[in-house]
Write a structure and sequence with these properties.
Shape: elongated
Strand content: 25-35%
Largest sheet: 8 strands, antiparallel
Helix content: 25-40%
Number of helices: 19
CATH class of the largest domain: Alpha Beta
Structural class: alpha+beta
CATH superfamily of the largest domain: P-loop containing nucleotide triphosphate hydrolases
Radius of gyration: 38 Å
Distance between the termini: 80 Å
Number of domains: 5
Length: about 625
């Protein structure tokens, strides 16, 4: 059954609640004060079912909003998720101040369809009714309620006149309304919290996306609490599940009513994130005052409300009737996704001044203004593949995971995976582990590595290469992206990685004449010493170069395994260690075991050298220690 949410709008005492009662048989004024004063103070809810001309059964949920200017914030909590609005205008008063404000709110929220309902038609004569109709036609001209596109119907809730015609028009428009996305991530903004005897905590709201069923787990934003769904009701009847577009009541397990409040949101757990900075396109009303940069406003999104600071991306003020990109910095963390519509109200006095559509809930810091504007233009007018590519490209060589794309767009993995597969096939995006990197950013990062390596070699001629970690920090990329970059450079034969060092392909250490001679002297000193090696500082002290360059030469010899370091000041030439292996191999023919004393006699070294050498042989699996002896393997 197709579900449609209808909201009322209009001035106080123009008959919104009476109209809903006449259509549905349900009195939406549930509070004692509402009944005593005869006005709607908070949101009211009702429902009905109709049959479309096609035979399709339609289910309608009504949200009746207060019309008094003091309760506009309550009105705003209810209109964010509606599909169709009934703009109610009393025939005996016509267009009034709250008619105008409610109409502008609906327009700013881009509610796509509506019907203008002239109520109390039985209280006026035909001439007065005609004048009211003409005033309304002029008022809505050019809007989504323009008489050329939308009906203006006169009714009497008390007499019942015009109600059947109104129901037929509601059913007709319902056929034009596309079904909401039940496969999207679940989001249900809470507009009411109460305790039901025998059940416990219950919340209600309009399910704006996704679906929910009994025993599902949901996450509460902004508290991040995980809660189990004990029961589901749709339009007052128990149900196994609720889908997008339905008025939904959820019985929650393990949470007190004091822990929840209007403005919170239930969502798919473990995927979405809160934000306090959002990039938006603001549209200012024609009769609003200019909006200055850094102005503070009241921000309303679905059932939530907070204070936000407006940071215009261009210029110092926004003129009435104009639109511009801006960043809203909110006092409280909010759960927002691209496409969400907001209402802006002046900080003081509190009146509606404009609206905004969310483009990016996770803007980057310190981006150039031109880049921000270009990016937001893509988000505002691009297709989903273009938007996803722009979001990946924005991350540069850092890349963006599929989970990150989900978090930023609000689209499910199942929707994004074929789209990303196409971008990979088109070679617009490359994959590095779990990360997606735009081909453009990847190419720039390759050039950056070459530049970094070239600069490193020039500054460090005696060092074979830069460490991977240092290179990664200079590039600002994650390890998996660096490995993908190095693999590509290796395929292109432009760079090579040896262990944890990276260097330009074919680029060795460049030694000056005195450095080459010193390197040879170091090697000769240790090669000729055999196992009775000299102290390193004695060898370096005899060289004709400074200590810093001499130490770098030692590092080169150690890297190339010409010298092998066994302790802080105990270095051997590789030929001496190779000779030691041969000595032990020959000795094994006499005895498979050797102790420290015999080892000293066999090699002619002191205990100072014997112990480190035996431990080295253990590590190299030439020997294995058993008690005070070694077994020669």
């Amino acid at each position: 059954m197709k579900s449609i949410i209808i909201g009322t709008a209009g001035h106080i005492d123009h008959g919104k609640t009476a109209l809903v009662r006449a259509l549905t048989g349900i009195d939406t004024d549930r509070l004692e004060e509402e009944k005593r004063r005869g006005i709607t103070i908070d949101l009211g809810f009702a429902h009905m079912e109709l049959m479309a001309d096609s035979g399709e059964k339609l289910r309608f949920g009504f949200i009746d909003v207060p019309g008094h200017e003091r309760f506009v914030r309550n009105m705003l909590a209810g209109v964010g998720g509606i599909d169709l609005v009934l703009l109610v205008v009393a025939a005996d008063e016509s267009i009034m101040p709250q008619t105008r404000e409610h109409f502008e709110i609906c327009r700013l929220l881009s509610i796509p369809r509506g019907i203008t309902v002239i109520t109390k038609a039985d209280l006026v004569d035909e001439d007065t009714l005609s004048v009211a109709r003409m005033e309304i036609e002029e008022f809505v001209r050019g809007s989504f309620l323009d008489a050329g596109r939308s009906s203006i119907l006169a009714v009497s809730a008390l007499a019942g006149a015009g109600l059947e015609e109104l129901k037929k028009e509601i059913a007709r428009l319902a056929g034009e309304i596309p079904a909401r996305d039940t496969e999207a991530l679940l989001r249900l903004p809470i507009d009411r919290v109460f305790v039901m005897k025998g059940f416990g905590t219950v919340v209600t709201g309009t399910l704006i996306a996704g679906k929910v069923q009994k025993e599902d787990e949901v996450e509460v934003f902004p508290t991040r609490q995980r809660i189990r769904i004990r029961g589901v009701q749709v339009h007052g009847s128990s149900s196994e599940k609720a889908i997008a577009g339905q008025r939904t009541a959820l019985n929650l397990a393990g949470v007190a009513v004091e822990e929840l409040a209007r403005g919170m949101t239930l969502a798919t757990p473990g995927i979405l994130e809160l934000t306090q900075k959002i990039d938006v396109r603001i549209s200012l009303l024609h009769d609003a005052k200019p909006l200055k940069n850094r102005a503070r406003v009241h921000l309303h999104v679905f059932a939530s409300e907070t204070i936000a600071e407006v940071m215009l991306h261009e210029g110092n003020s926004l003129k009435p009737g104009e639109s511009a990109f801006a960043q809203l910095r909110t006092d409280a963390p909010m759960l927002l996704l691209p496409g969400d519509r907001c209402i802006l109200r002046q900080f003081s006095p509190v009146i509606t001044i404009g609206g905004a559509v969310v483009l990016d809930a996770f803007p980057h810091r310190r981006q150039k203004k031109d880049a921000v504007i270009a990016f937001l233009n893509t988000l505002a007018g691009g297709s989903l593949p273009e938007v996803v590519l722009a979001r990946i490209l924005r991350q540069g060589p850092e890349g963006l995971s599929l989970a990150g794309v989900v978090r930023e767009t609000g689209a499910k993995k199942s929707m994004l995976q074929p789209l990303i597969a196409a971008l990979l096939q088109q070679k617009k995006v490359l994959q590095a582990g779990e990360l997606l990197v735009a081909a453009e950013a990847f190419t720039k990062a390759l050039a950056r590595i070459i530049a970094v390596l070239d600069a490193f070699h020039k500054a460090n001629p005696l060092v074979a290469g830069i460490s991977k970690e240092e290179l990664r920090e200079k590039l600002g990329v994650r390890p998996e992206v660096l490995e993908a970059l190095l693999a590509q450079l290796a395929r292109d034969k432009k760079a090579e990685a040896t262990g944890e060092q990276v260097r330009l392909a074919g680029r060795g250490v460049e030694l000056k004449d005195d450095e080459a001679k010193a390197k040879g002297d170091i090697e000769k000193a240790f090669a000729s010493a055999g196992l009775k090696v000299p102290a390193m500082f004695d060898v370096l002290g005899k060289l004709p170069i400074d200590k810093n360059r001499a130490q770098k030469l030692v590092t080169l010899l150690l890297r190339d395994r010409v010298l092998v370091k066994l302790a802080d000041d105990l270095v051997f030439h590789q030929s001496a260690l190779a000779g030691l292996r041969q000595i032990l191999a020959s000795y094994k023919a006499q005895s498979p075991k050797i102790d420290v004393a015999k080892f000293k006699d066999l090699t002619g070294v002191s205990r100072k050298y014997a112990i480190p050498l035996l431990e080295y042989l253990d590590r190299e699996r030439v020997t294995r220690r058993v008690g005070d002896e070694r077994v020669i393997l």
